[in-house]
Amino acid sequence: MYLDTIIVGAGFSGLYQLHKCRDQLGLKTLVIEEGKDVGGTWYWNKYPGSRCDTESHIYCYTFSKEIYKNWKWKERYPKQKEILNYLKYVEKKLKLRKDIIFNNRVISATYLENKKLWSLKTNKNRLFYCRYLISAVGSLSVANIPNINGIKSFKGDWYHSGRWPNKKISFKNKKVAQIGTGSTGIQIAPVLAKSVKSLTIFQRTPNYSIPARNRKLTKSFVENTKKNYLKIKNLLTKTPGGHAFHFAKKSIFEFNETKRLKILDKAWLNGGLSFRACFSDITKKLSANKIVSNYIRDKIINIVKDKEIAKKLTDFGHPFTSKRPTLNTNYFETFNRKNVRLIDLKTNPIIKITKNGIRTRKEELKFDKIIFATGYDALSGPILSLNLIGRKKIKLKKYWKNGPKTFLGIMIPNFPNFFIISGPGSPSVLTNVPAQIQQHVEWISNFIKYLEKVKSISVEPSFKETESWVKKINKLAKQSLFMKAKNSWYKGDNIPGKPKKFIPYPAGLPQYRKICNKVQKRMYKGFKISLK
User: What ranges in 350-423 are assigned the alpha helix state H?
Assistant: First the structure.
């Protein structure tokens, strides 16, 4: 089948990109999706307690006033099912389904230089050809299943949070092991603890976490967001993470200890990601960060009754916000339950998985079920899984062997007409993702419109601009607190053998947007455009 455009993935980015390419650019477009329905990451993330940590009224599209005003969110933070229903609503509203094929995973994509086309093959042995290939596979879609010895011998059931089965699973009265305490593990644990016989949580790295303070949305709040649609849409383009809050303008050191504590307490009671924005320098200066890190540590110690457990949960070893900030609902309170146990993998590592459970250095434990809340091969992993081969038969895996190289996080040298939405080298996971997605989709669509106008046959970024962009990201990362964190998936530390390079663009969405707009105004300077 020959098409103008093929988009891989039917999540937030794939659906919007299909609408832009098909309905606004008039291109013959197809989306190829691995799952059985739309949703992307939210199709697979069905684990207990799965919920977004960005507030619902901004974790959505803002390109359509009608869509924004007609959809009603129920809670401050939407559940997985509610997000999935929202995306199904958008898909139905824009009549997108007819141009999506499901249950097909792209296993290879090769650029045919003589034909100036991409050739794609799926796991169902289907073959497609297109001029433009767009990756909408997301940043968090390749599950990281740890290579623990003996996993195949386990007689019970095991699950990964990022590839949860499409069926109801009962954990009632079961002995359950949970490996991982990142944002996902922090959501799972309090839910499971209510019904299991026992829950043993294996922690590699303690995690700072702020109370989510989730609640049902009032009628007046919902009406107010709809009334202020344009104001909210505009605000999301001006804040560093595409959120609906600004960072405070004053430093933490401009306040005495009493006033400082009062501001922190107020932010803690409000909960949410805006906690990190209550002073201007929490995310920038180590001295300011240390004060807030100690504040969070003290809060956790006051919640957890067993002081030895509290000590393990607060032995951070990295600054607050240097790893992904997490939100929780009664996560630390969970450790006050008699059926919950914490194992510190630093002092008691896993040796192997046995047929009946898990053997650590100190003991052997029996389990009925194991949950891996171990995250993803983030950002670069999903793109590498497409097995891309570019010009001169260059394999992307080889080109990226020392770390991902892109220009603007959007295109790669030697891979013509291949675009990435929220790719390595863009703000991606450091933002409210739908806000970043909209910026990317709109910029890519404008670029394709221009390429069609000038009758381009191929486009790719120059090596010089790409190398310069990678150096810029490395420089910005070194100036930030991000590099102070060990074992951060922002720089691939969670995947054995993965290059240890900071992957996303760290200077914020407004600055990134400004750079992209500048490239567009300069007639896409930095890109090599070949004409017919």
Answer: 381-384, 396-399
| Cβ atoms < 10 Å from Cβ of 316 | 18
Q: What is the pLDDT of residue 235?
A: 97
E strand or H helix that includes residue 80? helix 80-93
pTM: 0.97
Residue type (1 letter), 324: R
- Token pair 């001029």 is found at 131
Token duo for residue 218: 């009032």
CB 355 within 8 A of CB 323: no
- Per DSSP, 199 falls in state E
Domains and CATH numbers, the chain: 2-142+378-531 (3.50.50.60), 143-208+324-375 (3.50.50.60), 248-282+284-320 (no CATH)
Task: State how far the Cα of 439 lies from the Cα of 446, in Å rounded to an integer.
Answer: 11
Q: What is the pLDDT of residues 110-124, one digit of tens each?
A: 999 999 999 999 999
All residues at 6 or more sequence positions from 480 whose CB lies less than 8 Å from its CB, including other chains: 283, 284, 506
Single-letter amino acid code for the residue at 317: G
- Using CA atoms, how far apart are residues 454 and 430, in angstroms rounded to an integer? 35
Q: Which of 43, 46, 41 is nearest to 141 (CA)?
A: 41
Q: How far is CA 201 from CA 155, 176, 206, 268, 339, in A?
A: 20, 9, 11, 25, 11
Q: What is the amino acid identity at position 201?
A: I
Q: How far apart are CA 231 and CA 225, in angstroms?
A: 9
